[in-house]
């Protein structure tokens, strides 16, 4: 938050200095009864410098847009694992979730496999059960991820009632054809392309582990 406020000040600084300089030049001209040639030249130079500062400030507003602000997600911190999982699966899920929470903007995540919630970690939503809605079903059907960059803008956000209510962004990453990794961020438009590639790699690794240790095919998520 302090970094964001500092960036705002730096972006506004040329506008403020340029505007203040222009106002002071105008006041000085009005308060001077007789204008000398040297003063006129100085005033012209001052006007040019003030205009350049204002133009620089306006360009900075366009070139360096204000980054979206993070929010404090509503909910309690927790780490829940399905108790009857094999130890290798528990270890893999614990490692993968820690990496995502500490190296990306993810603040809440779930792993759903064969219609069961295997893991919830981070800031937990009130609802502990996942009922696949249209977005998650589409991810399972197409095997393609969906990134909702600003969840508040999507009517379909109501299906994510198992995430904190003020979640800002969501990635639904398929894990083979049997599961989905659901990530919630506290900042909109915050996942980078590199993040998405990394999340895909972790999801594939989890899917491989669960295929080997996670049970039979008889309870696949129905879509």
Automatic annotation (TrEMBL):
TM ranges: 12-30, 42-63
InterPro entries: CCB2/CCB4, CCB4, GAF-like_dom_sf
Pfam families assigned: CCB2_CCB4 (PF11152)
Keywords: Membrane, Transmembrane, Transmembrane helix
PANTHER family assigned to the protein according to its UniProt record, in alphabetical order: PROTEIN COFACTOR ASSEMBLY OF COMPLEX C SUBUNIT B CCB4, CHLOROPLASTIC, PTHR34943
Protein known as: Cofactor assembly of complex C subunit B
UniProt source species: Limnospira platensis NIES-46
